[in-house]
Each structure stands twice: as structure tokens, then as C-alpha cells.
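hey so u asked for the seq, here:
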Amino acid sequence: MQLYEDGFLLGDIPLGQGFLDLKKIVAILRQHKPNIHFSLELITRDQLQVPCLTDEYWATFPDVPGTDLARTLRAVRAGAAPRLQQIGSLSLADQVAREHKNVRASLDYARDHLGL
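ran it, C-alpha cells below
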């Protein structure tokens, strides 16, 4: 994630390269549902713009308090990536190669660090 003028950018990256504590999340899920099955969905694309600082964005969230926005922006600031992957400017062959690399990195992380 990174801040931008109208909110923040949200990038899809391989498991273990973001700011979420996946080990803790998996442990909590397994604690409450020991036989849980996980599946991997990874999208290799340019980052999404989340324009949470615009009036139009909040039109569909009339009852969400500003404290939720503040908490989100603090998390973005604390977990900001130095750079996000740029996919759209790559050739189709390079996009496919990046997708394979990201999926392999995610599967390796899941096996080596999450016990999946």
C-alpha cells in the first residue's frame, strides 16, 4: 500500500510480502476451525486506487465513522511499501512470468512459514 492524493493505492503481492501478520491470522483461524481448508487467490496487476478521501467514495458509506478512515490511513502509512509492482507496462510474456513468480513465492511462503 501507498498513500496517494485521493486516498491510498492497494497492490496485490505474494504472501508474506505485505504488512498483515499471516502467521497470526492462520493460527486464529485454525484455533477456531482446526480442519479449515485454505485456497490461494493471487492477482498480478497494477495497484488499485482506493479514493477514500473523496466525497464520491463515501456516498455509499453514510454510517461509517471518521475514526474508521483514520485507522485505515494509519495502517496504510505504517505499512507503506517502498514501491509497488507495475504490471501494465510489461509485455504479455513478462506479465505471465511475473504471475508465475508471484504464485510460486506465495506457495513457497505458505509451505515454509504457514504450514500449509
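Residues 2-114 form one domain. Residues 92-114 form the longest helix (23 residues).
lmk if thats what u needed
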